[in-house]
Amino acid sequence: MQSASDRHEYPAHWEADVVLRDGGTARIRPITVDDAERLVSFYEQVSDESKYYRFFAPYPRLSAKDVHRFTHHDFVDRVGLAATVGGEFIATVRYDRIGADGMAASAPADEAEVAFLVQDAHQGRGVASALLEHIAAVARERDIRRFAAEVLPANTKMIKVFTDAGYTQQRSFEDGVVRLEFDLEPTARSLAVQRAREQRAESHSVRRLLAPGSVAVVGTGRAPGGVGRSVLGNLREAGFTGPLHAVNRAFPEDLKDLDGIPAHRSVREIAGPVDLAIVAVPAEQVPEVVTECGEHGVQGLVVLSAGYAESGPDGRERQRALVRHARAYGMRIIGPNAFGVINTSPQVRLNASLAPEMPRPGRIGLFAQSGAIGIALLSRLHRRGGGVTGTTGVSTFVSSGNRADVSGNDVLQYWYDDPDTDVALMYLESIGNPRKFTRLARRTAAAKPLVVVQGSGSAPQGHAVRATRLPHATVSALLRQAGVIRVDTITELVDAGLLLARQPLPRGPRVAILGNSESLGLLTYDACLSEGLRPLPPLDLTTEASADDFHAALARALADETCDAVVVTAIPAIGETSPSDAALAEALRSAAAAAPAKPVLVVHVELGGLAAALSAAAATAPRAGAGARTRDATPPRPGGPGGAPAVEAPEGARLIPAYPAAERAVRALAEAVKYGQWRREAADPGKVPEYDDIDEKGAARLIDGLLSRGQGLTLGTEETCELLGHYGVHPRRATPAPTPDDAARAAGTLGYPVALKATAPHLRHRADLGGVRLDLADEEQLRRAYTELTELFGRPEEIRPVVQAMAPRGVDTVVRAVIDPAAGAVLSFGLAGAASQLLGDMAHRLVPVTDRDATSLIRSIRTAPLLFGWRGAAPVDTPALEELLLRVSRLLDDHPEVVAVTLEPVVVARHGVSVLGASVRLAPPPARDDLGPRTLPVY
Fold first, then answer.
1. HSE-CB for 170 with a 13 A CA cutoff
2. What is the pTM of this model?
């Protein structure tokens, strides 16, 4: 091993798993002296051309001196990283610190030469780009600010790696060599490039799991029943389009097939490639299976086996070892303890799950961490009667189980550009990386609806998640800010999904209501009011209304410019003149088709035939028989409730969702209205304003000086005021008054009128307890108030009285900001006082906050009317309040060492704001993995 004098301690935190461009994985780690044989073996597999490009001359083999140089690093001035698959090198990168003369140097020199070598078989997989991200992060950690690279002009691939990275760079040409120099400070373009590469790589990694060319089920029992045998049967019955293989080491040697599917004792025995392996063996046998799959070149695993983190600490360690083992071979894992995956595309027809029936093909993507919830979601979408009627189909389904590797973030990356998915529905029991999920959700929601049911906040035992100090309600609010449609139950999840998959987004909250039941219309009207919609007076067509009456009324409503959406209410047909279910469905469909820009919903009461007729279409009906299911198969006509026959809609007909209760239909519509509004606003998210009086460098110097005292501290009053002052926030000074005479002297300096406050922790910000005296006009009133406070609450040293100049009258508010290790920096706003605290009436936004964010933030709380002239009061200066919020946001965004800020109370008057109390806490900034190189999480 290297001696202590030759190197710093091995930097284990530089180790990382990464997803490559083609969806496979590789491990990046520092090169050590133990890698000499690996390096030589790696170099022998590199082509002569690649060697020439690296060394600018024929270089058939490495000398002993070369091997020593390339494996001995001090991890400061000389660093080498390797990308490995299966424990073997596939690429290397190194940097050497240089001085102004281009010779080897040590700090404070801040430039380094960098060079890559990628095995030819792995070129084009994005290995060099990933290595560049990681070596750049290492260099920044070691105070290197600039890289230089010399490349032969013919080495266009490597030149492209550097030029495409997005860094600020310079290029020169001398002596037949291209010299590239670039700064390592991340830029907006380099982050955009990195995130685009991340999306493509993670999307491809999920696509390899959902669209495999061939599948092996490992753990297929010889007898019917059992997990493995069930999944194999489901794959066959779904009509999987590629080769299937049954694998069980207990198979007799002479067993060649199982139900017509080739049978093997080991994955190694399979002659052709295997893209996906479904693992259904006991947990203790899984490592052997992973090794077999990795050596055979399997691309991904779905591990159904239980006995991992859900079973306790030993299982958690077993789960971590499973992930490390699979990633070492470049494979990704869904699971363990997973329910499986489904892809209804006619080119794939994959049902690698425990669901006995293939869902109808459609445009909805489903993700559930829980198998039980996954079953419930598939069942509700599949049902044609009862509950939610009018079903649509599924594009893909993923049940991730313990989510040890592939998570909801990965699936979002896949759905973002999946042409077969229009709506994404997710049931999340936990969020492993809230910061990244919020970023991905915002981008996805800008393209297609994302509906989420979020667990209560306590993760299941099998889920390893990052700790967050944010309340569950705050996380939910941040998801809504990112465009996520947050609902509370799986019923609401399906209700919203059906509407969004079938109907256009409403342009506003104005709702027309029509139907053949006055009572049902009034219920719908009241439901609209309670959801914040603007319903028009219901139109009662009476129970004698015919199909033509419904058609005419719906057509008029859709043509009305004062209407953004229509809810049709219907009760069972009564009398000879009432329309049949099929006639009514056709009347509604034809009227809706003439106005495709407005959504239409139906509220029905036990109308099985109508619901089936509204939802029936050749593209989404159930598949016939037990054989292969295809999208163009002729569907049966299943019955609805009470045996009512389903009515098939014409091809391409517009599907209208039907709901059994007005409240459910209106709630789904209200979510669609809010989402539509978010989409329109997201097109112009606003900007983070610049303020000329902000002194960012002065604040940085102050913070560095304060942190030199210790790892974390709460600032005193003077330090707090000084730091906030650098950002244009000036709290009103409060002078301690340990005696009545001190209080009088302070008031004389400040000028009357003044306020006298008790600042002990149990009395601070509690005006309702009587610890504050306001508008004290002279010394006599001040001394009397001082005596009253001490008589009520205790000695001065117990209540800590202070004197403060009176602020203009206004509305008391509170501004808070914190940096959460999982979610990032969060800015919160609400009104001050016990009532708001009891109601939890706070609004939240992620930092940095834009001007549009600040405007919406103060309007998001339920008590916002108090700021805008409630009950005849004068409106207060909300523009000044918005500016204060933006300044606090800038402070946290510019200085991650500021981990908490509280301004309370902030009095918003008719003109201006007054900050009467402030506290700031500093600490070393938490790691920002979203700004570093791409890595897979390790739980």
1. 6
2. 0.84
